[in-house]
Amino acid sequence: MLPDTDPTHPALLQPGVHHPVNIIDDALLRLEALIFASEGPVNIAQLRQAFDDSISAAQIKQWLELLAARQNNRAIELIETAQGYRFQVREHYSSLIAKVWPERPVRLSSALLETLAVIAYHQPVTRADIEHIRGVSVNSQILRTLFDRQWITESGFREIPGRPALLVTTKHFLNAFGLVSLKALPPLEDVKEVLDTFNDSLS
């Protein structure tokens, strides 16, 4: 097959090389199909399989930027999370979705969100740390829920009497709230705003 008609030809898949429009379109359609069909985020390694691993991660990222740009003025957007790329409905339409499907939004309790925020911003922390920061005891069901959702995990023990477990957030937490890394967390100056951001991310 000629290079100008083969989207996987090495000569057409190098960063910095000009690609015919039809080749770019084909590549973007492949990426779009994979991400759309996946139940969860799709990472770069998985996306490279669409081209038999014949192109670099850098090229995939360039095409993902183009794909994200093509979502402008659409109700969905392409976002990057800690576990990969996914499509999601823009926040502007969350109230519309809630109106049509009122059961869809997942509203978490203030106590659970406050506990999650303490862990996210102060990790690694023990249960006693959480209680000290919040000023109230931690309900075991709250921690169980966070473990069940795989938003937190244990990461060693503090070397003090009793060796309490140290709690940290996970990649599942980052993915659930649309974050690439912990550095993307909103500033902690306004705790209420942080908690509202968490809840809105799940709407």
From TrEMBL:
It comes from the Bacteria. The keyword S-adenosyl-L-methionine does not apply. Keywords: Cell cycle, Cell division, Chromosome partition, Cytoplasm. It comes from Alkanindiges illinoisensis. PANTHER family: SEGREGATION AND CONDENSATION PROTEIN B. InterPro entries: ScpB_csome_segregation, WH-like_DNA-bd_sf, WH_DNA-bd_sf. Gene3D superfamilies: Winged helix-like DNA-binding domain superfamily/Winged helix DNA-binding domain. Transmembrane segments: none annotated. GO terms for biological process: cell division; chromosome separation. The gene is scpB. Pfam families: SMC_ScpB. This is SMC-Scp complex subunit ScpB. The keyword Glycoprotein does not apply.
